[in-house]
Design a protein that fits this description.
Number of domains of chain A: 2
Shape of chain A: globular
Largest sheet of chain A: 6 strands, parallel
Strand content of chain A: 15-25%
CATH superfamily of the largest domain in chain A: P-loop containing nucleotide triphosphate hydrolases
Domain D-glutamate N-acetyltransferase-like N-terminal (chains A, B): 56-132
Helix content of chain A: 25-40%
Oligomer: homodimer
Number of helices of chain A: 11
InterPro entries (chains A, B): DgcN-like (IPR011669), DgcN-like_C (IPR035086), DgcN-like_N (IPR035402), P-loop_NTPase (IPR027417)
Order of helices and strands of chain A: EHEHEHEHEEHEHHEHEEEHEHEH
CATH architecture of the largest domain in chain A: 3-Layer(aba) Sandwich
Pfam families (chains A, B): DUF1611, DUF1611_N
Number of strands of chain A: 13
Largest interface: A-B, 37 and 37 residues
CATH class of the largest domain in chain A: Alpha Beta
Domain D-glutamate N-acetyltransferase-like C-terminal (chains A, B): 140-337
Chain lengths: 346, 346
């Protein structure tokens, strides 16, 4: 099985040059950092402007240097405020195309909406890829059972580790020799997987259909690890989460949570939901399309806590649910995978 | 308060000529029938091709006749299979524009996507309106409480009477002297209201924001009657229903149901949910953005039942919930409105 699965035919792809532009904070380079963390073998170097103050620890490469070393695609993995594609980014994208690189972007504004970028791509016969644009042909969800096993990461809120958890589960399952594929639903995940659908950019009627599309029937007994989005308890985005839950028809759920989060992301009036209520609500909704769905564990993002507190809270929450609870980044996901395999023996 | 509310500035609008084309079944003219039923004062006549076998009972008018009698807009209220805009419809839309009428459509395929229709509109300085196209500028939902009162019609399934119920409630409240506005979320409702957002055509991240937009703060103590969509229990569309529920922040819910329906629309494997479970799930989800939400009653579409069975089932379901239960079309909604007013006295 290739790392990039069924999309190996698209012209853009690794090796990557990661574009950081003029980024000055960690949050704005989270797409690039996700790629460098999960697919280090694909990332040849980084490309930074003079005023950039953050680094991925990769070699700094000029565009022609990167091309000479074998880079195939420059990934614009740094967002301005609002995901806007400023003049600098446009100029650098054009320069990359002129240097012979394809260009992929996780920004909200699309490469294809800039005539000068489109012209440079045509001039150089290079490809443009907007990871946040949903392609055509997504069907309405049909709710029909399909073969294969699927695990969905759900969350108490946005940005609590749903993508990292799904990727960590993929890695652990593969290391143990189980067929397993991360299924991406957001722009960073799509750049990491080389495939996927940005479900929050899909027209509302097609969200469950998009989830069905990215995790089709699989006869090999392996697992699809589907990247969750949002939260059933987020007033802005819960509809996306529910459509994704129904379309995924998950056999297994992992609940993701950030224990220092005080309120829902962007909404100070809304407290983070109770963990048990959140798990129950997700299981109840998931039963509509898969009555046999099971909770497998809890994944905490404990980056805001000292190590001993992180261990304590994992133990406490694990005991509360009677399920494994770990931080996928600092502790791994081995106890979750043990429980997953034990829960689905064949 | 004008019937058309804040959209009186758009060029298209009543009086209407209702286009039935070559329709041969009732289902395909449901948009036209909805307009003729709910806004008879706006509907001057119908326009049919020779092979059309259905009628709204309105005068048959040629395009120039309709224009001479004061028609402003031809409404394409008949769908081919799949909502496709066939050659006949395109030719007739162009003829209507050439006769000096604006053209509005509730079809899935857009008027604006046909260059010949766009050219005819420009040539005649007439407007085109696609009721199924979501306009730009819809914000992300913010979940903040807002003034005014809102009632949302929710359902066990698609096509169980959510739009008719909301319109019947608007009519009854207005007759009793209460400020009340139907808020449309689907193409037929939008043509009836002259305003609204087709929430199933909105990008998924913006569904709750769309619901907030169409039912803004209102300081007059009146009611917004918001047209529900889909069902929390429909595997294809539940995400739309949940986003609409959260964005509406409803004070009151009316549950709509079609008692002869055996399975979810389009999905024979999925039974219609239990009425009480459906009401509870809607209330539980609605509490996220409005903890004080109350169930007000049940609206049944009993068109598939003899009159005495219809009366029986309304009584039985009403007793089960301890709430009024009526068929809005054959029985009216007076007991629901009585209970609504009693539940929210000021």
């Amino acid at each position: 099985m290739s790392d990039r699965g069924e999309t190996a035919h698209v012209p853009w792809g690794p090796p990557y040059l990661l574009y950081l532009g003029s980024a000055t904070d960690e949050l704005s380079i989270k797409t690039a950092r996700g790629l460098a963390y999960w697919r280090p073998q694909w990332c040849l170097g980084q490309h930074r402007r003079r005023d950039c103050t953050v680094t991925l620890g990769l070699p700094d490469l000029a565009l022609d240097q990167a091309k000479a070393r074998g880079a195939n695609t420059m990934v614009i993995g740094a967002a301005n405020a609002g995901g806007v594609m400023g003049e600098e980014i446009v100029a650098d994208a054009i320069a990359a195309l002129d240097a012979g690189l394809h260009v992929a972007s996780g920004l909200h504004h699309k490469l294809r909406d800039h005539p000068a970028i489109v012209a440079a791509a045509q001039r150089n016969q290079r490809a443009l890829f907007d990871a946040r644009a949903a392609g055509p042909g997504i069907p309405v969800g049909n709710g029909r059972p399909r073969s294969g096993r699927r695990l969905l990461t759900v969350g108490t809120d946005c940005s609590v580790g749903k993508m990292y958890t799904a990727l960590a589960l993929e890695r652990s399952l593969r290391r143990r020799g189980h067929p397993a594929d991360f299924r991406a639903t957001g722009q960073t995940g799509i750049l990491i997987a080389g495939a996927g659908i940005p479900v929050d950019a899909v027209v509302a009627d097609f969200v469950s259909g998009a989830a069905e599309s990215i995790s089709p029937a699989r006869p090999d007994g392996g697992w699809d690890l589907i990247e969750g989005q949002g939260s059933l308890f987020h007033p802005s985005y819960a509809g996306v989460s529910l459509g994704l839950l129904h379309g995924s028809q998950p056999d297994a759920l992992v609940l993701c949570h950030e224990p220092t989060r005080r309120h829902m992301r962007g909404l100070p009036e809304y407290p983070v939901p109770d963990l048990r209520a959140c798990m129950e609500a997700n299981l109840a909704a998931a039963r509509l399309t898969n009555p046999a769905v099971r909770p497998i564990g809890i994944a905490l993002n404990t980056s805001g806590l000292p190590a001993h507190e992180a261990a304590d809270i994992c133990q406490r929450i694990g005991a509360l649910f009677g399920l494994p609870c770990e931080d996928p980044v600092t502790m791994g996901v081995e106890s979750l995978v043990d429980h997953l395999i034990a829960s689905f023996p064949n």
